[in-house]
Specification:
The chain has about 270 residues and is mainly beta. The chain has two helices and 17 strands.
Length: about 270
């Protein structure tokens, strides 16, 4: 028997934590022979909407693929979720290399999140390694920037749905609950001290980027995975201030000394009395 859970991954941890139960959705687990990845499936079982549990009994020994679908049709082996949901653990709802022998195979789990995901990165747009400086696009060997605050808000900026700090690789992930609706959203970067923005990329959002506010704005569709929402920064130039030019003062001379005397080097004649 092959069994597991299709659970509501409310904290999007990609693991089934205590208290995470079913999704309340009508879903099915299908078993496909690994030698026939295009189907048809040989068995299917309904997923319990409340607990998320499923079990597929009577499985012959062999190597299989388990997929999660919204119907029980064995010839349909394309994983499909209801609108507004995305995958976390096993993001594509297709678990491969499920080996069945003489013992049961439990814990073939799938995590689902009711909402959307946004990913991107923050990088140093200095043009390192042959890159083009200040163009808002990561190229050459331009490094990524860690420790930058990024958040996603509603269209007005009044409600923050999620916030995070870029990791050591400059990457970030934001989660948008389905409750945000199909409404305008803003992805906002807060520059580190000593940095300024040179540009940004809207990725797959289809939105627009404004450098003045350092915001990517777009219209959200629940259950969508958005990628490539990047931000480009550079350190503020810090040049040492140059010393002001001070003209050398001419030697003072008495009112009685003639210019000719000074010219001839008669210093006594040029000195003040």
């Amino acid at each position: 028997m092959v069994s597991g859970y299709v659970y509501h991954d409310a904290n999007h941890s990609s693991a089934r934590d205590g208290g995470e139960a079913g999704t309340g959705l009508t879903l099915y687990a299908k078993l496909i022979p690994a030698l026939l990845p295009g189907g048809p499936a040989v068995l299917s079982a309904a997923v319990d909407p409340a607990t998320g549990a499923y079990s597929i009994p009577g499985v012959s020994s062999g190597l299989y693929i388990v997929v999660i679908d919204d119907n029980a049709i064995l010839t349909d082996v394309t994983p499909t979720l209801p609108a507004g949901w995305i995958g976390t653990e096993v993001p594509d709802q297709r678990r491969s290399n499920v080996s069945v022998g003489i013992t049961d195979v439990p814990n073939q789990n799938f995590g689902l999140y009711n909402g959307s995901r946004i990913t991107g990165r923050v990088f140093n747009d200095q043009g390192s390694g042959g890159g083009t400086p200040n163009d808002g696009v990561q190229n050459g060997a331009e490094a990524r920037i860690a420790g930058v605050d990024v958040r996603v808000t509603d269209g007005t900026g009044a409600t923050t749905f999620d916030s995070t700090i870029t990791g050591g690789g400059g990457d970030y992930t934001l989660w948008v609950p389905a409750a945000a609706g199909n409404n305008p959203l803003r992805v906002v970067e807060a520059n580190l001290t000593g940095y300024l923005s040179t540009g940004g990329q809207v990725g797959t959002t289809g939105g627009t980027y404004d450098r003045g506010t350092d915001v990517t704005a777009f219209t959200h569709t629940a259950g969508t995975i958005y990628t490539g929402v990047n931000f480009a920064d550079v350190p503020v130039n810090q040049h040492a201030a140059s010393r002001p030019h001070r003209p050398r003062a001419a030697p003072a001379r008495s009112s009685g000394a003639s210019p000719a005397a000074c010219y001839l080097g008669l210093r006594a004649a040029c000195s003040s009395r």
